[in-house]
Amino acid sequence: MTTVTEDPNITMDIFAEHESEVRSYSRSFPTVFKKAKGYKLWDTDNKEYIDFFAGAGTLNYGHNNDAMKQLLMDYIESDSITHSLDMATIARGNFLKKFDEVILRPRNLDYKVMFPGPTGTNAVESALKLARKITGRTNIMSFTNAFHGMTIGSLSITGNASKREGAGIPLTHSVSMPFDKYNSKADSLSLIESYLENSGSGVDLPAAIIVETVQGEGGINAASMEWLKGIEKIARRFGILLIIDDIQAGCGRTGTFFSFEPAEIKPDIACLSKSLGGYGLPMSITLFKKEHDVWEPGEHNGTFRGNNLAFIAATEALTYWENDNFSQEVDKKAKLMHKFTRKVSKDYPQLKAEPRGRGMMQGVACHVDGISSKICEEAFQRGLLMETSGPKDEVFKFLPPLIIDEAGLQQGFDIIEDSIKAVLK
Ligand SMILES: *Cc1c(COP(=O)(O)O)cnc(C)c1O
């Protein structure tokens, strides 16, 4: 009998034959995976891969975390509630209670928690709806190279032209402004302020400004803390709501639980997903200040808002945030990544490279067409999963699980350097 984990009949041909052309990561990483643990994966040829991809930032706590796995197995074994829409369950209650105790209260964040559908884009859509409902305005201000998801509302505030084209309809009710340092000749903050002040600018007062503190898909562009403070100031001055999309940069990716903590700002609305479910299970939440809780019951609904397995793992994941140890560990590894991105940029001038990012969300932008994609392909051959980012795929991007050890990081760096050498040869 073949088992799910050892079935020799599953080859790449099956995906090419049956699965739509829309598939993407099975093209970047063309092998059949069968097993994963911590920061490693294995394919059906038993080849080992170091994971510098982490499910695009969904696996901050690594693959198949032991503590979460045990709790999930116990939960399933005891026939506890698996699906429940938004009915009250112990798993849901435990998550809410611990999220308040470990995350919100110590940070003085007096937020209500909303469970939209379990994807990131659903959290974003709910945030946009809420901002429009609160203010009675329609437009949303977003930024160059922003990525917020693939449904219509999220696409309307996304920068990337090819993703926008996929919508197939005009994307409206949004206005795009330059992200921090997008244009070195213009100061983004004063530009935005002048557009809002000037009655001849053609920019209507928006309901909300939505921003990623570090643009994940858009090229690992890290906003400065001054810029983020400035954006909050503009939002307050004009009575615009501030939404932070912390779907990729949050859950500890930059060292603090929320990526906006070091900027000392307090968004009106914040979106979390990706690593929130801890084990890679789908889950997302939208947080907002209590005075903004103007929803009617059921006004934003969804069948899968009660993913109790995700609540179990997500609650366990919060244990990492009960003290500062994990944060400090992330900072330490972020420094090693920082050092490596500088070293690569200096040692390989042919790459025309520029280090980017913050925390354990870093990358190297190469201003030579196509070279970052080639480096990722070489790295895959050598046993490293790493993806590109940016409008021209110009950035090779490091997003390992936060629990990776220093030896694992170094192994990844060595593969990257070998790959760069091979591409430049
Ligand atoms: C991944 C991502 C989303 C969309 O999440 P999905 O679960 O893919 O819908 C939105 N915003 C940011 C910043 C993301 O990285």
Description of the molecule:
- Helices cover 36% and strands 16% of the residues.
- The strands form 4 sheets. It has a 7-stranded mixed β-sheet with strand order 4-12-11-10-7-5-6, sandwiched between helices. It has a 4-stranded mixed β-sheet with strand order 1-2-3-15.
- A hairpin with a 5-residue loop joins strand 16 and strand 17.
- The longest helix is centred in the C-terminal third of the chain and has 23 residues.
- The chain is globular and about 60 Å long.
- The model has no long low-confidence stretch (mean pLDDT 97).
- Bound molecules: pyridoxal-5'-phosphate.
- Pyridoxal-5'-phosphate (PLP) binds next to helix 6.
CATH superfamily of the largest domain: Type I PLP-dependent aspartate aminotransferase-like (Major domain)
User: Per CATH, what is the topology of the largest domain?
Assistant: Aspartate Aminotransferase, domain 2
**Low-confidence segments, ≥5 residues, pLDDT <50?**
none
**Quick one: biggest sheet?**
7 strands, mixed
Structural class by sheet pairing and helices: alpha/beta
Helical stretch tally:
14
Average per-residue pLDDT, rounded, comes to: 97
Using only C-alpha atoms, the radius of gyration works out to 22 Å
Kindly give the count of domains.
2
Q: Which percent bin holds the helix content?
A: 25-40%
Ligand identities = pyridoxal-5'-phosphate
Tell me the strand percentage band: 15-25%
Anisotropy-based shape: globular
How many strands appear in the DSSP assignment? 17
Distance between the termini: 47 Å
What is the top-level CATH class of the largest domain?
Alpha Beta
Strand order of the largest sheet: 4-12-11-10-7-5-6
Question: Mind telling me which CATH architecture of the largest domain this is?
Answer: 3-Layer(aba) Sandwich
